[in-house]
Amino acid sequence: MTLRKLGCRPARTRTGQPRLSSTMRAFMDRRAPTRLVRSQIDPAPRMLGNDMAGDCTAAGIGNHIRATAALGGYQVAVTATDALGFYARSTGYVPGNPATDHGGIEVDVLTTALRSGYALADQTLFPLWGSAEADDLNGIRNITAGLSAAYLGVRLAMADMWTDTTNALAPVWDTHTPAWRGDPTPGSAGGHCLLLWDYTGTDDTDLVTLLTWGTRQKATWRWLRSRLMEAHGLAWRQLLPPGALTPAGQDWEALTAANTAYLAGPD
User: Fold this and answer.
1) Domain count, the chain
2) How far is it between the farthest Cα atoms of the chain?
């Protein structure tokens, strides 16, 4: 039976953390595509240890690397060992010691990736990142379309964790669920990190594709809006293929400067 663990701690903010609404205003404010359908591209998400530990924040970064590579027509090998190793470095988790498995704070995990990189067997990748407002769905769609996927923190309900007799999740996560699936209150199950990959439209009942637990999970926009507690843009400029939806040069420069200033700390 597939285990699915949670591990995204409540959203936090840190002094000076990069914010996309100010550093990449033109990118965030432009009208996002009304549809972003990528059914022909396989982002090839992996479990990356999220069945053994609450390392969803680390697995999310690993799968973001893979999603970005897929858009360029190739793939990057990321293993559970890589993700669990990064989880240990970013949270203090000691592999094999469940007492240290407390999950991760997304902004701190992203800060570790920015400062120390995400180490793989043959290379270490360093992202740029910035936060978006959780209620800025247009900006989150721009992140998804222009930076390969949005890195999100959600509050899952017990109803979302329901599985059928084959241990499969509901085909579509929605806010309207039968009572027998459990408590529908956001957060009643816990916090989770996942990626937004694409969407069929922007209406409440249009479907989005989420990358989590090694698979593609469908949900409605109204479900995502009800569960969302934080959103971030994560950019692997060395992997991201150029395109009309990617940020312009001045946006890259502003994001780089914001990340550099954040690492340097307050004056």
Assistant:
1) 1
2) 57
